[in-house]
Amino acid sequence: MNDFHILNMLTGTPLLDVRSPGEFKRGHIPGAISFPLFSDEERAAVGTAYKQKGRDEAVLLGLEYVGPRMAEMVKKALQLSPQKKIMIHCWRGGMRSGSVAWLLRQSGFNVQVIPGGYKAYRLEVQNYLAKPFKYVVLSGPTGSGKTDILKELAKSGNQVIDLESLASHKGSSFGSLGMQEQPAIEHFENLLVQQLTCMNPELPVWIEDESRKIGKVALNEAFWIQKVSAPVVRIEVPFNMRLKKLVNEYGNFSKEELSQGILRIGKRLGPQHTKAALENLEEGRLEAVAESCLLYYDKAYSYSFSRVDRTQVVSVEFDHLDAASIAQSIKKLPATFRY
Predict the structure, then answer these.
(1) What is the pTM of this model?
(2) What topology does CATH give the domain 132-336?
(3) Where are the alpha helices (DSSP H) in 19-143?
(4) Res 1: pLDDT
(5) Which CATH superfamily is domain 5-125 in?
(6) pLDDT confidence of 120, banded at 50, 70, 90?
(7) pLDDT tens track for 216-266
(8) Active site residue ranges
């Protein structure tokens, strides 16, 4: 059992998040079910009534909204939990969760309200992200196959967190291609902590060498500090192999999608290189396009890597991109690091 109090309370019983849909989208306890007492618009109206007219007026307005839906709410809860056992939370464990708990208890449900609500959960998330772990950073220039290597490390029983998968973004200007919508920063942190609670902090945890921002998702400050001070395993693979990997990975996307990726780094590529890359893309010379972008990313990677004071770095060269073989070669390296 881990030391995350609220997560330890969740034992398979359906957890209903009665906050508004917008609040749920910004972030929620992984596995929770959106069961809003109010819509976003209704919540705003009740809040305004509370500020301008007082608590009694706000309660009456809330009842006007919820009253006609009470039967449907009970029916939906029965579908989610035929055994009539439910857990509930709102923002602070206050009126919204209390109201839904009262309604369901009147209908024969065994209801447990999460103390402190989502606010208490988020506080635990922030504290957990500052908890010390033995992170090992897998680094290497673009096209080195780091994500594939991490997957192979996980297959062989190593502790791995795939930050790009959690962020639904591969980090580069082309990183959103083929990925789902990114979570809000708040929910990314929730997902990250969900995985961390499954990790043994006494054993190494492999993560990829990401920038502070993965697409629109910014890494938590406490987590970032641990990441930049962690030991590094740096993979070095020949340029031409990385080039072919990028062509294979991104070559099936449309010209429109690829051109948008080029334009996003246009200022850093410079007008001449951007123009040449777009012309090569239009004429189907994908390897030339990839080469222009890869040269830029290699420079950016070298600059970024040199700016961080990394006390423990092991560089390993390979003449192939066989992720399983590379994982096998590096998996024992964390035992040589000092924490």
Answers:
(1) 0.92
(2) Rossmann fold (3.40.50)
(3) 21-26, 40-53, 55-66, 70-80, 95-106, 117-129
(4) 46
(5) Rhodanese-like domain (3.40.250.10)
(6) very high
(7) 999 999 999 999 999 999 999 999 999 999 999 999 999 999 999 999 999
(8) 90
